[in-house]
User: Fold these one by one.
Assistant:
Number 1:
Amino acid sequence: LTDKKGHFSVQMLSFLFSIPVFFMLPQFTTVLSLSLGVFALSVITETFRPANSVSISSYARPENITRAFSLNRMALNLGFSIGPALGGVLAAISYKWLFYGNGLTAAIAGLIFYSYFKNIQPNKKKHDKNADIKKEKEGISPWKDFPFVLFSLFCCFYTVCFFQFLSTLPIFYREVHQLSKANIGLILAFNGMVVFALEMLFVQIAERKMRPVNIIITGTLLLSASFLLLLLPGGQWILFSAMFIMSVSEILCLPFMATVSLKRAGKGREGAYMGLNALAFSSAHVLSPIIGTNIAAHFGYDALWIFIAVLGVLTAIGFKWVFKKF
């Protein structure tokens, strides 16, 4: 859709179509109807993401693309920080207001988006040294770009490890360290604070000092180290130290993964490439809690952290190998 209709149109339509679905969801009271409603909403809202990624590359200068992705992620992290707090206030009034609030927010965002971007022209791109390679790939589906498929697969492996942050880590904090909900929330919020405070700085330094392949490999190895740290005895300082290292890993990996995906795309296929890379992350959302909770339940948390650390090291090796094919 992004490649055929353009990133502006797709983002605008995503805003518009999500509004009525948000308002309709509270009326669905059965499991089947609610599931179908959530599925429809997910299709509409997730269509926004590849188009948004392509628009970042369109509006940013070529030398600033990675920092532009980082700035966008800062906005997302800020939203993730505000959203749960605002959601709690709305839920205290009525759970229906969670959906009405989202519908109103989508309407306001869509209005601002249209008003500002309707007349904004994309930046003119400088001559690309890889123009001949891109010309060869012009019009090719990302599924036929085997090195990129492998790259996205390793992105999926990385994210399976990283998304333990959303599933098994909070359970580990509660069951093993006996932390209260407030303290668990504090550690998880610490991740957002680190990313918000340091991402732009770290990305700028990394861009100047290292190649993207080495940045991603370093970030992946740091993720493994953060989980190995959880094997050590100690109090909350261990948990905060591990979370800090994990946050640095996120800073180094996620913006550069997006940049690599975008730069790999041939002309007119940017949306398809960003969509395939987004699929890798979505698949990890499904696989990560299934893998993590099952290993923890059958073999314990120490076994899980060792497994995740080993998978991270193997993924780093995979990234090094696949970049040689680019």
Number 2:
Amino acid sequence: MKLSYIRQKLQLSSIQKVVIGIIVVALIGAGTWAVYTTTEKGTLPIIPQIEGSDEETKKVQVGYGWSVKNEESEAVEEAVSSVKAQLGDNTPEFALLFSTVGYDPAEILNEVRKCLPNTSIYGGTSCLSVQTADGLHVGEVGSLALLAVSSQNITFGVGGADIEDFTSAREAGKAAVQAAIEATGKDGLPKLVLMTAAPGEEEELLLGINDIIGNDIPVIGGSSGDNDITGQWRQFANDNVYSNGISLTAIYTDLKIGWAFEAGYLRTENRGEVTRAEGRVIYEIDGRPAAEVYNEWTGGLVSEELDNGGSVLSKTTIYPLAKVINGEEEEYSLSIHPLSINATDHSLSVFANVEDGDELMLMHGDWELLLNRALTTPSKALESNNISEDDVVFGIYTFCAGTMLSIPEDEMPKMPSLVGSVIGDAPFIGTFTFGEQGYIVGVGNCHGNLVNSMIVFTDNHEGD
């Protein structure tokens, strides 16, 4: 399937190119790169690499693979063969699996389970393509990526839940994280939790997770995607495939981990207070119809939809709103993607929950600014815990599908190269999501839109 298909489906508008190199350097240097947070900012010195160390001395063994073969069984076989060749005699305890919905998700998971019967599996579906260190993978039918880990120094526990089986999404989140923790056999709280969920109730799921682990353990990940926003997304948790569920991985380790959560938009001076909202519908900003305020802020961007109603998804990717959030030391802005306008009351539907009293800001970007997040976000992940390029043994990259689709098709393959320019030859796996979860220092775990995140794992102990 070609990337142009989803563009036509969502009627994406073209974006004028601008020179980005000077902007990126200036933004990073000035500290005005909007909407990001990192955690575990370290004071430990970087541990020098020991030349001549062999594979047996490594604390973490990693194998990855991918495929664009048309048949599910052949695609899994190709990816797993690559994983096993890199792992050698090491049996992986844990694997990340991301695939597009051109494949049958249940068959994909079943094939992987047959090949890796003793491996815990976490993941879900990705919008249109997947990423690895080898590139951006788009197949005629589908594509998948698999990354497996063997380590006595990292314990992974996978848990999942079908939201339909519980009285609320909050209860499903509690059950899933409890199952993930129990699967590790560990006491105490995990260092970090990975999250893949169905789009729609991410805030409630996070509340349930926080009920068990508190609000100081980072929860990072994204909401599973499909190719055309028709609800074909799926979540993988060991033997289970959910359509409206959640998959979590609890991670226990004393090895250094770094991460970053970033949107990469520029701030504008347009701000207002939400004076009436319910769930994911904003009715009023500063006492006026929300869509009218948004249209004024953007210079008439959605004038047609004010008259007729309808989707504004493609138009608003480079003009998102953002919640203004006060952290411990600075002000953050958590981006929110406007979805549609109701012509009757000029309310504005969005992809994240909004409450009365929230302060909103208009953000602005362009495709080059968004593409360069594949450079800046991994860089911030290294900086978050004083990690060098040579320290990284593998990474997990989450990139919003909406921002991916705003990037010209011939520019998209640069994403994996930009990531690799930061983390070197370390393998990584990437997925394109319909909503993202991350941690803001001094605030806690949040759900936003049009965001990307990077997690990097190392072979170094925190205290080394």
Number 3:
Amino acid sequence: MIRLHADSVVQVYGLPTSWAITLLIGAAARLNRDRLRRALIGRRGQFAAIVACAVVAGPTLLPDVKDEPMLYQVGGPDIAVCSVAMALQVEKWSRTPILLTPFRALGLISYAAYL
């Protein structure tokens, strides 16, 4: 029997419900990319991307939130949805704004830096 809830971050971090949902969100977004693009046209897409940035940055402003199991059970899927909204908006850019160039460079080498 798989537990869907845990009382500590150590327990919840390894649960399949903590990360599998985020992978499913990413896969569903990829499969429905054209439909999502149509839904996020113009100002609606820009607004969704701005809200998504705020949601993703939010936990960084609350240092103790990393000790809450709900961050991994609810925050993970929320951040996955927000990442999809941001990626769909950024995908439209013809070039990277100058202020974001360092982040783009980090994104290009992030996996190698992670390793």
Number 4:
Amino acid sequence: MLKKIISIFLVWRILLFIPLFFGNFFLSYRNGFYYTSVAHYTQPWNPTLHFLLSPWANFDGVYYLLITSSGYTVNAGFFPLFPMSIHFVSSLFGNISYFAPLQFFTGLLLSNIYFV
């Protein structure tokens, strides 16, 4: 049973790369809504800006990373368990900085674990 769940999960995640690939080339952000992109907050050299990685943290992911870094300063409409778990796990591996790749990859890992 567990093997079937993990295989369905992996196939689902691999298939999600198809719209990410095409969306990168054919869809752009609306004017004035760049704040929903993780690229708006990170440095140009950040490894999370690859077009196959950055969509995993856009829109609500940006808010979760903001809450993880600086608490509820922008939008209190998100439940605290996910940002707290990102903060806790990423603090085990190093110093937490604003929109650090460590937070991004910790959030990506935790969201996939929670999904399974």
